[in-house]
């Protein structure tokens, strides 16, 4: 009997020892995985670093590229497109006007009744329409037919609050937020698509003519009186409200900037100098690239797998279309190399662009004690359940790294414009400091 008891005790001790070894080994493995995860996050943070000195280098590089782009066509990664807009709104405009804004995965149609200097904006209505993904990579005719049909529906809903003078044709301002080489205020050929669009038969074509033909097919009696980039439109809107606005920046699905330049500072301008002495320049700054930009392996991989590799590098690290995707790619590496979400990589995490920037932003701004927003987003979007608070904090940190880098680089770009504008401010406005009396319009 004693031998049995002793034997049983030995077996129990051995079992307990084996279990203890397994527990220790599991803890060590888990500790090693966590250390690897922290190393990945730290390396990513360092490579995304934007110290003041680097930001100044980016700003200076932006100014250099601006000069090169103003000097000659193709002289810079920045297109520095002449917009033919040499006068901006004054606030005295009156009448009924329509606008179409095409610049991303949605487009907007708008009608406004302007009442002049004293009346201001009398009334406005708008509608937003999603563009089916197949139309973003289809044909020019299919895309513009869809847009014209939705525009016709919107015009048909025009009420008594919007008055069109007898005998006057409806006028449409067309905001087209892609690189265009304009030949007049109401015509321009598409240079290339960005922001996920890839419609080959539209490249090189006059997009105003494409829209006009589509409206005619819809029987819509409307005239496109102005073609502008969304950034130029934003600048015009800012000037309508504030005569001191001189520059505009778009930070949305894509990104761009436009500003008021001295006509004499544009060597590639060969026409008569405008009476105003000024010209709005559409920079197309999303295509800015510099050795000073803090690019990571995730950015390079995203670019290589994009529809336009090697292009729009600045846009791919600061704009809404890409920020969530960068976070997803880092999370994917953490899952693969550090088992952040368990022994297997969640299948949804491998789907490109499944994590959109609005969801990333919501997680970034989660202030709840248990980061419940982060937990819910991970579960609903990536089907990752039961995440610990420690893991959720890692996700928030990644969102913060990506968002901070984007914001600081955007600010550096604005500084570059500020430096260029400031060089001619004495001749242009007679002010001692541009920042004292002139403004930015940022969307």
Automatic annotation (TrEMBL):
Can you tell me where the transmembrane regions are? 6-24
Signal peptide location: none
Which of UniProt's keywords are assigned here?
ATP-binding, Glycolysis, Kinase, Membrane, Nucleotide-binding, Transferase, Transmembrane, Transmembrane helix
**Pathway listed:** Carbohydrate degradation; glycolysis; D-glyceraldehyde 3-phosphate and glycerone phosphate from D-glucose: step 1/4; Carbohydrate metabolism; hexose metabolism
- An annotated Gene Ontology molecular function: glucokinase activity
Q: Which domain of life is it from?
A: Eukaryota
Listed Pfam families: Hexokinase_1 (PF00349), Hexokinase_2 (PF03727)
BP GO annotations: glucose metabolic process; glycolytic process; intracellular glucose homeostasis
Hexokinase C-terminal domain location is 247-423
Q: Where is the Hexokinase N-terminal domain?
A: 41-238
- Kindly list the GO CC terms recorded for this protein: cytosol; mitochondrion
So what EC number does this one have? 2.7.1.-
**What family is reported?**
Belongs to the hexokinase family.
Full protein name: Phosphotransferase
Give the species: Quillaja saponaria
